[in-house]
Amino acid sequence: MANLDKLMSIKGVWAAGEFSNDGKLIAYKGEISEEHAAMAAMMCAANTMMARMQCDGYTAFSGQEWTPLHGWALTGPKFSVCVVGNLGVFVKNDEVSFNEVFKALKET
Questions:
Q1: What residues pair up with 79 in beta bridges, in sequence order?
Q2: In what order do the strands lie in the sheet with 72-75?
Q3: Given this model, what pLDDT does residue 2 score?
Q4: Which pLDDT does position 7 carry in this prediction?
Q5: Domain parsing of the chain, residue ranges
Q6: 28, 37 in Cβ contact below 8 A?
Q7: CA 22 to CA 75: how far, in whole Å?
Q8: Is the pTM of this model over 0.70?
Q9: C-beta separation of 69 from 57 below 8 A
Q10: Strand partners, 30
Q11: Which fold would CATH assign to domain 4-107?
Q12: Average pLDDT per consecutive 10 residues, the chain (108 residues; last block may be shorter)
């Protein structure tokens, strides 16, 4: 199991979670309900699969190396979700260092 406490200790992170490849919630922490965490797990798994498919397609189409997928982010005006592998965090854009978040996600 991932060290979600480590992810939660990053300034600007308000929720962290781990999910399975098929979108089941494994664990979560933070300012989020279990129902919303489960919905986020499903969304993160689906978007991870889509990003992998896009990386494979871009590699085949362009001849450039886009694989393997290292992670992805979805950013809104105030909040973002950042995912690497089967771990994701919700962050406050104006408080977080995205470099720090992705480094921690890769190491956790």
A1: 92
A2: 25-30, 13-19, 87-92, 79-84, 72-75
A3: 87
A4: 98
A5: 4-107
A6: yes
A7: 23
A8: yes
A9: no
A10: 15
A11: Beta-Lactamase (3.30.450)
A12: 93 98 98 97 98 96 94 97 98 98 96
